[in-house]
């Protein structure tokens, strides 16, 4: 565990520094950035037994605890490209509330992560969908019961500080005429979609053995 904590202590400042630097750069150049650089996202996600690899395509196996989380995230776009590719990059901070449904006291969590977004046009149509992949750190005031159970099966304990990943598939709403009234004010774009919220030890880096938990659900995001 000491090795994991030492690694985490080194990684946490780096992730937070990257996020802070991205926010600072965006603020300093606010007058030069295109509209829609800031995003705010709300999501509801429920604990799942599904592995991350199949969760990203919608495979859902509910956890017996049936616990869930509500999350609010705020982010800033800091680049329109990644290595010259049309992949938008954002720096994000999130706050989570974990409803443990009586198995233990409810908890709070926080995330700091960088996320890549790629918008893809559906073949033979003018419709678009957006894929997103985020990487960073997650801290919780109390480890979710479904995560505790996953590590208990291996005879070890999880950690409050873990690696964080998220996967999302969103539909931009501006492309549909019915939603046009939403964009008469400060909102430049809105999305609704599917998300996988994932905490893990990265093969034992953050805990004594590999393990983690997936929360799967839906989110709504606005850009302004």
What topology emerges from the helices and strands here?
Layout: H1 2-28, E1 38-48, H2 52-55, E2 68-79, E3 88-99, E4 107-121, E5 128-140, H3 145-152, E6 161-172, E7 189-200, E8 212-223
Antiparallel strand pairs: 1-2, 1-8, 2-3, 3-4, 4-5, 5-6, 6-7, 7-8
Describe this structure in words.
The chain has 224 residues and is α+β, with helices and mostly antiparallel strands. The protein has one domain (2-29, 39-223): Porin (Beta Barrel). Helix content is 17%, strand content 44%. Strands 1-2-3-4-5-6-7-8 form an 8-stranded antiparallel β-barrel. Strand 4 (107-121) and strand 5 (128-140) form a beta hairpin. Mean pLDDT is 86; it is low at 1-10 and 20-33.
- Shape call: elongated
Structure classification: alpha+beta
Number of domains: 1
CATH class: Mainly Beta
Q: How much strand?
A: 35-45%
CA-to-CA gap between the ends?
43 Å
- Element order: H for helix, E for strand: HEHEEEEHEEE
Features:
224 residues; alpha+beta; Porin; 8 strands; 44% strand
What's the short version?
By secondary structure, the chain is of the alpha+beta class. The protein has three helices and eight strands; from the N terminus they run H-E-H-E-E-E-E-H-E-E-E.
